Amino acid sequence: MSLNFIWLFVMLFIMMALNIPVATSMLISSVVYMLVYDIPIFSASIQSIWSPMSSVLLSTGFFILAGNLMNNGGVTKRIFHFANTMVGWIPGGLAHSNVLASVIFAGMSGTAIGDAGGLGQIEVQAMTDNGYDLDFSLAVTGASSILGPIIPPSVPMVMYSLVGGVSIGRMFMAGIIPGIISAVGMMALCYVISIKRKYAKLKFPTLKEVWSSFRYAFFPLMAPVIILASIYSGVITPSESAVIAAVYAIVIGLFSKDLGIKELPKIFKESFQLFGSVLYIYIASKFFGFVVTYEQVPNALANLVRNSIGNSSPFLFFLAVIAILLVCGCIMDNNATILIIAPVLAPLASSFGIDPVHFGLVFIFTMMIGVVTPPVGIILFVLQGMSGISFGKLCRAITPFIILIIGCAILFALVPELSTWLPNLVFG
User: Fold this and answer.
1) pLDDT-flagged residues of the chain (< 50)
2) Alpha-carbon span 141 to 144, nearest angstrom
3) pLDDT for residue 177
4) pLDDT tens figures, 312-371
5) What 3-state class would DSSP assign to 37?
6) In b/e form, how buried is each residue of 371-384, taking b as 16+ CB within 10 angstroms?
């Protein structure tokens, strides 16, 4: 194997440094490299364009649609009201409501941006109106948004299953326990900070108030139950669950009159545009992946890791993976990270005897930390855009949560049963 492939990455990072979109950078650098080194472009084109014709990838589009429908159909407001009733009485109540609402919404949207963009505005407004500091309110919102892709259903897990050859159903089940552990950790951190800053709490709810908030949020709360029950009963496939989620979101919105029929074309258009960008990233990354595979870069990386840490330490391998993904998450789009890095690292994980589902969960969880990590965490820019806060102040506020989440990633790497017990229990 020659070292010519280094020029591929040099071109990629130069273009990214010039603020050229990641997908475009991957596509241009790949095509230029293939022309210079006489690599068959026709073969790469066939593989890259044909591969998106998959029901698994199509489900990503429906999950995006479902998230947009829920954000516009009053679902987020109902969920936050219920969460606030249930945990608002704890010191720092609205911060706990923020995290719990993200856990519930994660069972419907499957994306971090859907959580931050939908629930985020309601949560931040409620917290600041009740005396919470803006930076803390944004930090809780940003940190809890990463639960969206961890607790099923999950768009990144669908993408990972597509390229990693792992069962989507098993990946979905793998995220439940880690998602709950992460949420509890965030709430514990919120409790400590809230006690220190003397944030307000609500009065303990009466049974009447609990029942009223439950009735108000009943149909949104049923969405994850219906979706997951349909999957694990065998009625529908995980890919088809995305369609069910989108249809259910329309029904809830229209039934509650929070969503008008005239609004649907706009929502469909926005969802289609976002899915189009995902498809573009996927095709561009397949071009890039074709070149990387052609030049045997995965084999080189495998040899490098083996020579560095040997064959007997899966945990050291996980630490290396976590370090790689923390860097990639800061500078690359999540879809690009999955489509470029996962095919390289997943086979290597298997050679260390690591369960594919366990590795997939740690991969997705660690990758998601990047969306809230400076300098280019996408959720940070979403939060800054909705609040006008200085970027530096937001970064300082979210740092304790990032440290907590990294600790969770290491825990999940150390204890495989946290991600494999439920899938094995359900699927055998």
Assistant:
1) none
2) 5
3) 94
4) 678 888 888 888 888 776 656 677 678 778 887 888 888 888 899 999 999 999 988 877
5) coil
6) bbbeeebbbbebbb
Q: Please state, in angstroms and rounded to a whole number, the distance separating the CA atoms of residues 51 and 34.
A: 19
2: helix, strand or coil = coil
Which residue's entry shows tokens 């009065």? 203
DSSP string across 120-186: HHHHHHHHHHTT--HHHHHHHHHHHHTTTTTSSS-HHHHHHHHHHT--HHHHHHHTHHHHHHHHHHH
Q: pLDDT at position 14, please?
A: 85
DSSP secondary structure code for residue 92 in this structure: T
> DSSP string spanning 253-294?
HHHHTSS-GGGHHHHHHHHHHHHHHHHHHHHHHHHHHHHHHH
Q: Which two tokens stand for residue 352?
A: 């260390």
Q: Tell me: the pLDDT tens digits for 146-196?
A: 887 888 877 788 888 877 788 888 888 899 999 999 999 999 999 999 999
**How many DSSP H helices and E strands does the chain contain?**
21, 0
Alpha carbon distance, N-terminus to C-terminus of the chain = 42
User: Three-state SS for 352?
Assistant: coil
Cα–Cα distance between 222 and 251 in angstroms, integer? 12
pLDDT above 70 coverage of the chain, percent: 81
60-70 pLDDT per residue, tens? 677 777 777 77
* CB atoms near residue 40 (< 10 Å): 11
Residue showing tokens 């995305």: 242
